[in-house]
Structure formats: structure tokens, C-alpha cells
Amino acid sequence: MSFGRALLFLCASCAANLTAANVPPPVVDLPAPSAGKVATAVLAGGCFWGAEAVFERLKGVIAVVAGYAGGKAEDAHYDKVASGRTKHAESVQIAYDPSQISYGKLLQVFFAVVHDPTLIDRQAQDVGPQYRSVIFYSTDEQKQVAQAYIRQIERAHVFPDPVVTQISLLPGFFPAEDGQQHFVQRNPNNPYVMQNDLPKLQELEQQFPELVKP
């Protein structure tokens, strides 16, 4: 990638973060159950490295797994998904304690920090349907919260362009290869990580300091 093109993407990312700072908390959310229960959410918003790094920093999040969702099990391999022809999206599966952090709060971080939900089939320099924005729901309640939240964001005109995030039934989640797990944590000096993912962690700490684990 040329320096000029990299600078263009970096500036676009900064502009998106400035806009996303106004993402409101959800009005509609799932009720908080008693302590001790574990819930899961599956979200896709660009490269799963950054998404995983952001969500695993949140209080109440127990574990985050990078993987693939939207396609068939036999196609859930990095090289195949990278072709853009498998129907998979790079995704993260989030196991969390809903008595400590709600599903709606995860969605707020998803829209405010993880990615730009107005981009179709791309994030920064990553282009293709495998980088599309998707909320994969596994229950009708998750679907209703996601739909209500997108309507709320659209009515508030948070973003200058329409939100294109899809809301899709989760057909299955397939963990990615070991080398893709906790990539940001293991490779903080990787050029891609430094340009695209570390700024997201900084944004998380600035916008949601009360949610970040010590």
C-alpha cells in the first residue's frame, strides 16, 4: 500500500471515530438476569483482530473468539474466507456475563468503536463481503434489540450516511485458526495492528473508561 493511500485510510478512520463518539446507549435492551449466567453474542465488523481486541477489554466479557459466520463449515478457513466467495464474515463470538454488561452495551461499543457501520463490504483497507457489518442473532430478543437500536441510531442521525449493518440469523459460528486468536495482544508492533487496531483500543478507553477492565 502506498503512503498516500495509507494516509487516506487513516484520515477516514479518524473522521469516522469523531462521528461515532455520539453513538447513544440503546433505549431498548435485554433485561439483566441474575448473576452467574453466561450469554453469547456474535458480531462482524471488519477484520476480527481489532474486534476481538476491543471486546476482550470490556468488564463482564468472559471470552472472545475470532472466527467465521454466515457460511458453511467446510468453507470456514482463512484462505477460503479471504476469497470473498464463501458467504462467511470475519466475526467474533463474545461470551459475557449479562449481569455485568448488557447485550445493548456490546452493540453500542460495536457501533462506536469497532467499525464504521456505514461502509458496505469494507473497513479501512480491507475490502470484500467477508468484512461486512453484521449482527448475527440467535434469539428473537437479540434480533428485536438490534433492530430497535439501528432505528434509534438512524433517527438520531448519528452518522452522515445510512447504517448498512445487516441483522442475520446465526447459522453457525466456526472458530478461526490458532494463529488468528488474540492477534493484537500477541503482535502489538504489527504495522496493520498499529494503524488499525491500537487506535480502537485508545478510542475505547476515551469513550468508555468505565467499561474497560483494569
Tell me what the structure shows.
By secondary structure, this protein is of the alpha+beta class. The protein has 7 helices and 8 strands; from the N terminus they run αβαβαβαβββαββαα. It has one domain: 2-Layer Sandwich (Peptide Methionine Sulfoxide Reductase, Chain A). The strands form 2 sheets. It has a 6-stranded mixed beta sheet with strand order 7-6-1-3-2-8, covered by helices on one side. It is globular and about 40 Å long. The termini are far apart. Residues 1-21 have low confidence and may be disordered.
Short recap of the structure:
With 214 residues, the chain is of the alpha+beta class. Helices cover 38% and strands 19% of the residues. The strands form 2 sheets. The protein has a 6-stranded mixed β-sheet with strand order 7-6-1-3-2-8, covered by helices on one side. A two-stranded antiparallel sheet has the order 4-5.
Short descriptors:
214 residues; Peptide Methionine Sulfoxide Reductase, Chain A; six-stranded mixed β-sheet; 7 helices; disordered N terminus
How many strand segments? 8
Q: Count up the helices.
A: 7
The CATH C-level name is: Alpha Beta
List low-pLDDT spans.
1-21
Give the overall shape: globular
The percentage of residues in β strands lies in 15-25%
Major pleated sheet: 6 strands, mixed
Structural class of the secondary elements? alpha+beta
Head-to-tail CA distance between termini: 36 Å
List the domain count as a whole number. Answer: 1
Strand numbers in spatial order across the main sheet:
7-6-1-3-2-8
CATH superfamily: Peptide methionine sulphoxide reductase MsrA
